Write the structure tokens for this entry.
Amino acid sequence: MSDELDDFRREVQAWFSANKPADPGFLLPESFMEVGTDPQFQFLRAWQRKVYDAGYLGMAWPQAYGGGGRPQAFQDIVNAEMARQKTPFVPNTIGLNWAGPLILAIGTEAQKQRFIPGILNADDIWCQGFSEPDQGSDLANTQTRAVRDGDEYVITGSKIWTSLGSYAKYMILLARTNPQEKRYGGLSFFLIPMQAPGIEVRPIKKLTGEYGFTQTFFHEARVPADCLMGREGEGWKIAMMTLTFERGATGGQAGGLSRVSLGINDVIELARQSRRDGRPALEDPFVRDQLARFLIEDQGDRLCAARAQVPALCSERPDAIPLSAKLRTSEYRRRLFQFALSLQGANAVRWVGDAAAVEGGKWQRTYFNSFSSTIGGGTSQIQANIVGERVLGLPKD
């Protein structure tokens, strides 16, 4: 098997070296949360299709639904190589990493046949309808209503921070089907078509000046009753399963790069180019100490997945690694990019488009975009509560 994987790694390296797309001539987003223009979307969608057609996406998903049917180790090699070569990311993040694994885990055979192929080849882009304008992180207090009317559900309400909402064909939606039930019991989970009459999408402009998020309004939108996943009242359970995929606590994702981001090696190079007291910042003892700390943290996070597979290393708290993954990685990126800005001195205030900005202002853009990961999928405060309650056993109050 090791020889086969080595041969495959060389094949993958050669393919991405030969097929990595050229600079399109416009600013590319760093993740699916910044896809805000048609040229960006079409470019990234074509790239996902090319990677899939080459056999490098969904490699561990069943062949019956368009996957490769191969061991996960092959997809891991592809993911690592895409990150190493800093290829563009594949845009259907919610479909590939959240909706798809969920459908494969608990969906009906008809749902798997209907949805999985389009998720892989990017024909069907997915978005998520969880957060609401007035509920914050209190997902259990969902107020969007879904009322059964014959062979349809009538949906009324609003969802916010709908990434890719402007381009999505389907949405995973959490809505309240029984208002008499308090919080968890009255919720249901849907796979709904975004083209249904009565669904309105309004783009949201971010602090960076980019789009990517939308607010989605349901004006008595009618969707087929077979959009329901599971049974009425099971929405909370299914939503929690979805979040385990979203936060990386459960495996089964289709693979592919989900974001293109600067990293610790880029920050080291920035420190080499930056000046402090007339010398390269990299020679400053304080800067070197901080970089060493970031390097240790980065390597620790990289090894966490392997560590979780060794019972002797995590038997005392087996859930600690998967349940802390999102909190660790999102907060690490935010602190790393904040440090990168501190290396720029007064130039840190310059923005994209400023001729005097360091490297075109990409560090400022990356820093601001890093906050989206500390909010989406559960804020860092919520993640800390999860670790405290489910890993450390602390009381809720």
